[in-house]
Design brief:
single chain; alpha+beta; Pnp Oxidase, Chain A; 6-stranded antiparallel β-barrel; 4 helices; 8 strands; 19% helix
């Protein structure tokens, strides 16, 4: 599995499980459709959603990609990638917004994304991985590293987190 870049592993997913922290200090789990460009993860979400309110007040989130239970032979060994991220809103008036949204639309063609783009409460956020880990079965765990946090780095012993 080490030979695959992180983008090949994440591109197969259409959504990401998000973990954010609420104003009350408790974690909140949800999900959002996503697009990954090989360096950053992008989510397009409504300001009405709890996870949007959470990242607006504390711009950090965890992003989890996990193998479907029906595809795994062992429930304890599901393939997964977990990223701890800083979050930044991409303003609608920027070239970056238009470029990313075109790619988002291409990924989800035939969906309702075009309609949602016209709604004022939907915004684009970039999640930049600060650290993370990937597990592909027993004894097959990696840290996420590299200059752009998009490489799998073999774990040696119990290296823990940053």
């Amino acid at each position: 599995m080490l030979n695959k870049p992180l983008s090949e592993l994440i591109e197969q997913y259409q959504s990401v499980v998000l973990g954010t922290q609420g104003a009350n200090g408790y974690p909140f789990g949800s999900y959002a459709p996503c697009y990954y460009d090989g360096e950053k993860l992008y989510i397009f979400i409504s300001d009405i959603a709890t996870h949007a309110k959470n990242i607006q007040s504390l711009p950090k989130a965890s992003a989890l990609f996990i193998e479907d239970e029906t595809n795994s032979q062992n429930i304890f060994a599901r393939k997964r990638i977990s990223l701890q991220c800083d979050v930044q809103k991409i303003e609608k008036t920027t070239d970056a917004y238009n470029e990313i949204m075109q790619k988002f639309q291409a990924k989800f063609e035939g969906g309702t994304l075009g309609m949602l783009m016209g709604m004022t409460d939907f915004n684009l956020y970039a999640l930049t991985a600060i650290y993370g880990e990937a597990t592909f079965g027993f004894g097959e765990a990696y840290n996420i590293g590299g200059e752009k946090m998009n490489c799998l780095v073999p774990r040696v012993g119990d290296s823990g987190h940053k």
